[in-house]
Amino acid sequence: MQFNKKAAVVALAASGLILFSSPAFANQINGSGASFAQPLIDVCKVEFTKDTGFTVNYTAGGSGKGRTDFASNLVDFAASDSAYTSGFPAHLEYAPVYAAPIAIFYNLPTVKEAINLSEATLAQIFSGQITKWNDPQIIEENQGVTIKTPVYKTKKEVVTVGGKKVTKTVPVLDKNGKPTVIRTITKKVDIALPNTPITVYYRTDSSGTSEQFGKFLKGANEGANGGLWPKTASGTFSNMTPNSIASLFNFQGASGSALVAAGVKGKVGGIGYGEVSWATDNKLPTANIKNAAGEFVPPTAAGTSAFLGGGTILANGSVNTDYKKVIPGAYSLGTASYGLVYPASANKNAEKQKIVAAWHTYLLEQCPKKFPEKGYALITGPLYDKAKAQIEKIK
Question: Could you tell me how far CA 150 lies from the centroid of its own chain?
Answer without folding.
Answer: 20
